[in-house]
Design goal:
heterodimer; A: 7-stranded beta/alpha barrel; five-stranded parallel sheet; five-stranded mixed sheet; 10 strands; B: 446 residues; alpha/beta
Chain lengths: 420, 446
């Protein structure tokens, strides 16, 4: 008999989020009704190209090299539709490098809403349409069909879990926050209380060590070395199953620039993990196939990975955000009656969560993160600009609705003619 | 005449009033030398002689730092722009009586004076100044943070200008210029008129700045005559500043008959629009407008409201509208420039001025001129001269909402008000004001 217990490896899921919103241009009250463009695609192009140069291209290249050297590496991406579209148009070379990663077979792509939206609150139909659009886009570009869903900003609740099940997903990724864990560890596979949907939880402490604290010199663990970090990962309790690390892909080279040593850190951590026998890198769909769920996760209230509150308050925390979102949602029915694909597309781009994120009036640490991402000098301007755009869209809807009514009347008139 | 601003660099009614007043004085053959903190090529003083106080060199006692900066410049001089009957002197100044917390700036940063209004005073420290040289104060002509110091500097410059010019009467507009007026009176011995366009009580409500109050009171006490823009303001001057009633003369402002612009491109936000236009500050009562809008929308859900302007209460108003869930029907335009004011008038069905304390209030006259019926608060000077307007108390939101609904519903009422008020404002002119002012000049000089 072998006295040594069988070495059961820990699984590790490394998932990167890629997203760029389609930012609005300045749209003043006096631009209402003037046919002015809502989106500042000039600015969007500048930002996409900058981020592609600082982050997407160098990090993808780094990952491609690593995957060539270590076949055991597994990486997961979730790329929003609005980012994919901008990559296609503004940074096709960066998109090519994502396709090369897809071709290695070592990379999995998650499903999300095309517009990186809060459409789970709009209507189930709208939510589904946007997920379908994203799945189609992923298939078209990368030739694979996602089977695991991650909602915008890891927002999750029981209803979202049920909808994901209805839409045919095997699992969902959300944040391992205390509201749903109640003292349990995030390092297990969990399951929805009412259906088969598996739930993977992001280990936010270990994720944020890289995403936020890597450059924080006032952090007691600074400087974070690859050796130290890999030790933390390997020293987890034997019973635990899987660690999910997830962060903005822009962490590498954009939020934390190359001179911080973040690329060297990433390269060293991944190659150490690839050589380590105690840890096996995996993808969400593989983990769901291999592991047995440890317990159920109940999420009666919405959770997310944003801000300290880890709920919806980053996007719908104040009255401005709620009023803007309500106004937006009210347009769904008239828009769908009109059926103009271009108007519908515009309305959907206005659903991107970032627009609401810019309207946040939070202070302190949360506030400075909101400010970092916002193109506006204040949340009030973000709100006023957005509302002007909505007013303009409302006018366009009214105009088209009227045209439609006239067409119907004409048809009635015509049919009465033929009858006689 | 000591002023603070002159078109196009204006932040409120003061610049417009000075422009209208000096224009009418020129017409009445009164020669005006107009001093402002800072003028540039855009400043439109065709009818006046402008003096930029920035270009006036004054002898002062300085600390060593300043001496280095101004070494070698020792000849006093200033520039005037001489035209017809009015000369304008331009004084460089960084006085900031009105500042707004960082908000609402899609506007060009090159004109900060336009966005800032509520004043903040810095703590001014006094320094020993051992030497005496000639210096030129650099005034920004806007409303900046080192206010009190710059008011004092403007005062010093005022004395110097008085030494270098001959004139019969000194006329100082609002507290920023009172120091300059007093200094000019001391130097020249000529009579001083202080013209009160607004008091600290209008701007700040109960939380007045004692230092500003003191400057205002000193100016009124030193003056030979005080001109108030309304009876409302005269009452404040008498009761709050303890100036004898007989020393205060009411001269209502006039309206400038602007040319009507055509072919304006209008924002087609709705069929019926109710507008608030002015600084979004405590004095203007914006919250009563927002609350009344919520009331009206319950009865008329298709009405749209426009809050045009900027100010320190803008964020609060945006939040208030959002809380009442009326953001989709209440539009914020930010500070209006160029023809945007005309564009707003062109789509407005009802104009509302719910001011808490308004010394005069020129916007209702502009609205009437543009053919817009107006609702004004009883707490405004303009209510004294405008009979064909609906008048309410600013705090009475229900009465305000009621008036708005009635104007929107009854075309007969709207038409009557439009017609009558347009006729009425043709009599509220600067010529009429100047007649009174020239009489005061005459009395003081003979």
């Amino acid at each position: 008999m072998n006295s040594q217990p069988e070495l059961k490896p820990h699984y590790l899921n490394l998932y990167f989020q890629v997203h760029q919103p389609r930012r609005l241009g300045q749209f003043s009250f006096f631009d209402i009704g003037t046919d002015r463009d809502y989106f500042d695609d000039g600015l969007n192009q500048i930002i996409m190209r900058r981020v592609a140069k600082n982050c997407y291209l160098p990090t993808n290249l780094l990952l491609l090299k690593l995957i060539q050297n270590y076949p055991g590496i597994r990486i997961t991406f979730s790329i929003s539709g609005s980012a994919l579209k901008q990559l296609e148009v503004f940074a096709p070379v960066a998109l090519e490098s994502f396709k090369m990663l897809a071709a290695t077979g070592a990379v999995e792509f998650l499903s999300e809403t095309y517009y990186h939206s809060l459409s789970f609150l709009t209507s189930k139909e709208e939510f589904h349409s946007q997920i379908k659009m994203h799945t189609d886009k992923i298939q078209q570009l990368f030739g694979v069909k996602p089977s695991v869903f991650r909602n915008t900003e890891l927002i999750y609740n029981d209803a979202i879990g049920s909808m994901a099940h209805d839409f045919g997903f095997t699992g969902v990724i959300t944040d391992g926050v205390k509201q749903i864990l109640h003292g349990r560890s995030p390092n297990y596979l969990y399951q929805h209380p009412n259906n088969e949907t598996k739930i993977l939880l992001r280990n936010y402490r270990l994720s944020d060590d890289i995403a936020f604290r890597f450059t924080r010199k006032d952090w007691h663990e600074w400087p974070l070395t690859p050796k130290k970090y890999v030790e933390w990962l390997t020293n987890m309790p034997a019973s635990e199953q899987i660690v999910t690390l997830s962060m903005d892909y822009e962490t590498f080279g954009e939020h934390q620039k190359a001179d911080t040593g973040i690329f060297k850190f990433l390269e060293s951590v991944i190659s150490k993990l690839a050589r380590n026998k105690k840890i096996k890198m995996t993808t969400p769909s593989e983990a769901i196939r291999l592991l047995q769920p440890a317990d159920n996760i109940y999420a009666p209230e919405s959770i997310s990975w944003a801000d300290e509150a880890r709920d919806l308050s980053a996007w719908l925390g104040n009255d401005m955000q709620k009023d803007a979102f309500d106004t937006l949602c009210k347009m769904e029915d008239p828009l769908k009656r009109i059926g103009d694909p271009s108007l519908l597309n515009t309305w959907r781009y206005l659903q991107t969560s970032d627009h609401f994120y810019y309207m946040s009036t939070k202070k302190g640490n949360d506030g400075s993160v909101h400010n970092y991402f916002s193109p506006y000098p204040s949340p009030y301007q973000a709100f006023m600009n957005y509302m002007n755009v909505l007013s303009d869209l409302e006018l366009k809807i009214e105009k088209q609705s009227k045209g439609q009514v006239e067409k119907i009347n004409l048809r009635k008139f015509e049919s009465s003619l033929t009858l006689n | 005449m000591f002023g603070w601003e002159f078109p196009p660099h204006i932040s409120g009614g003061l610049g417009t009033a000075c422009f209208g007043l000096t224009q009418a004085l020129a017409k009445a053959n009164t020669h005006v030398l107009f001093v402002i903190p800072k003028a540039d090529a855009e400043t439109t003083g065709d009818h006046v002689d402008l003096i930029s106080a920035s270009n006036v060199r004054v002898p002062v006692e300085l600390n060593e730092e300043s001496i280095e900066q101004s070494a070698g410049e020792s000849i006093p001089h200033y520039e005037t722009q001489q035209t017809s009957h009015i000369e304008t002197l331009v004084v460089q100044s960084g006085i900031i009586p009105y500042t707004t917390p960082a908000i609402i700036s899609f506007e060009e940063s090159s004109r900060p004076a336009l966005n800032i209004w509520n004043y903040q005073l810095p703590i001014v420290s006094t320094q020993e100044k051992p030497n005496k040289v000639w210096i030129q104060y650099q005034f920004s002509g806007s409303y900046g943070p080192s206010l009190l110091e710059e008011v004092a500097q403007y005062g010093t410059t005022g004395g110097e200008i008085a030494r270098q010019h001959s004139f019969d009467v000194i006329h100082a507009h609002d507290w920023l210029t009172y120091g300059a007026g007093i200094a000019a009176k001391k130097v020249s011995g000529k009579p001083l008129i202080v013209h009160v366009h607004a008091t600290e009580f209008d701007r700040a409500g109960k939380n007045i700045d004692e230092r500003v109050y003191k400057i205002e009171q000193e100016g009124m006490e030193a003056a030979d005559k005080v001109i108030a823009v309304s009876q409302w303001t005269k009452n404040i001057i008498v009761t709050k500043y303890h100036i004898p009633e007989s020393k205060v003369e009411v001269v209502h402002n006039g309206a400038i008959q602007a040319k009507k612009r055509r072919n304006l491109k209008l924002p087609p936000i709705g069929k019926q629009i109710v507008t608030f236009l002015g600084r979004i500050t405590f004095q203007k009562g914006p919250q009563y407008f927002v609350d009344a809008a919520a009331h009206v929308l319950k009865l008329f859900p298709d009405i749209h409201f426009v809050m045009a302007g900027s100010g320190d209460l803008l964020p609060e108003m945006v939040e208030r509208a959002a809380k009442l869930k009326i953001s989709s029907h209440l539009h914020f335009t930010g500070f209006l420039k160029g023809d945007q004011v005309d564009r707003v008038w062109a789509v407005t069905n009802v104009y509302v001025m719910p001011s808490v304390s308004e010394p005069f209030g020129i916007s209702p006259l502009e609205a009437a001129h543009a053919g817009v019926p107006v609702i004004i608060s009883n707490q405004s000077g303009v209510a004294e001269v405008m009979q064909h307007a609906i008048k309410i108390d600013f705090w009475n939101i229900e009465a305000l909402a009621d008036a708005i609904c009635n104007l929107l519903k009854h075309q007969s009422l709207t038409r009557t008000l439009k017609h009558q008020s347009k006729e009425e404002i043709s009599t509220i002119t600067w010529d009429r004001a100047v007649k009174k002012i020239n009489t005061i000049y005459h009395e003081l000089t003979t």
